[in-house]
TrEMBL record:
NCBIfam families: rsmG_gidB. S-adenosyl-L-methionine binds at residues 79, 84, 130-131, 149. SUPFAM superfamilies: S-adenosyl-L-methionine-dependent methyltransferases (SSF53335). Transmembrane segments: none annotated. GO terms for biological process: methylation. Its EC number is 2.1.1.-. It comes from Ruminococcus turbiniformis. One of its GO terms (molecular function) is methyltransferase activity. This is Ribosomal RNA small subunit methyltransferase G.
């Protein structure tokens, strides 16, 4: 008799994702490490097993709704925090080279421990600010895909993220709900930074009332050299 599928597996199957036994083990160990480390540092306010699976792991993987991730070779996760969405994407799509960027070193230590424990290969962690790393030639316009669940307006996020994306690649922003005003206000910034909004997918996360939005911005031309501006400016003075 077949083992009954978990809620997590069912949610992922709705996205067209079927986990191997190894991947199930990796997600379970990731959950254990998240809750263990969360006792001594603030990684997440969500610790219930099913909630973490839905609101962190499944949410991270909803990118498949708008993007064929099998075609991606390189990914950077800006403001990754406890590793979302970068690590769940890496677990399910192990062929991708993933870079995880965060400004807090304690989170980087956690991410390094997770990558080692889960035997994730081709994962690099960066401690610092997007504004600084996006100016380094080894990271600027080097990625097929940039993702971010960071909380900021789309103009600011675009200045953090689009400089990392190569021409023809994409930046995908994970948001809750997004207003027509924010979308309208961000269009000029996106264009200046070399991007074009090509998809806006609004949906409910699982069988909940959690509104989610995935925005895909395609990189259609190179980002001008003056961007991103120095650390702190994009958040204080978004391009309008």
């Amino acid at each position: 008799m077949a083992e009954e599928k978990s809620l997590f597996e069912k949610e992922l199957e709705n996205l067209g994702i079927t986990l191997t036994e190894r991947q199930k083990e990796q997600f379970d160990r990731y959950y254990e490490m998240l809750t263990e480390w969360n006792r001594v540092m603030n990684l997440t306010g969500i610790t219930d097993y099913d909630e973490v699976n839905l609101k962190h792991f499944t949410d991270s993987l909803t990118i498949v709704r708008i993007k064929n991730v099998n075609e991606i070779s390189t990914l950077i996760d800006v403001g990754t925090g406890a590793g979302f969405p970068g690590i769940p994407i890496k677990i399910v799509f192990p062929h991708i080279k993933v870079v995880l960027l965060d400004s807090l070193n304690k989170r980087i230590r956690f991410l390094n421990a997770v990558a080692e424990e889960l035997n994730l290969e081709n994962v690099e962690t960066l401690h610092g600010r997007a504004e600084d790393f996006a100016r380094k030639k080894e990271y600027r316009e080097r990625f097929d895909l940039c993702v971010s669940r960071a909380v900021a307006n789309l103009s600011t996020l675009s200045e953090y993220c689009l400089p990392f994306v190569n021409k023809g690649g994409s930046f995908v922003s994970y948001k809750g709900s997004i207003s027509d005003e924010e979308l309208h206000d961000s269009k000029r910034a996106v264009e200046i930074l070399g991007g074009k909004i090509v998809k806006c997918d609004k949906f409910m996360l699982g069988d909940t009332d959690n509104r989610r939005t995935l925005l895909e911005i395609e990189k259609v031309k190179n980002t001008p050299g003056k961007y991103p501006r120095k650390a702190g400016v994009p958040s204080k003075e978004p391009i309008m």
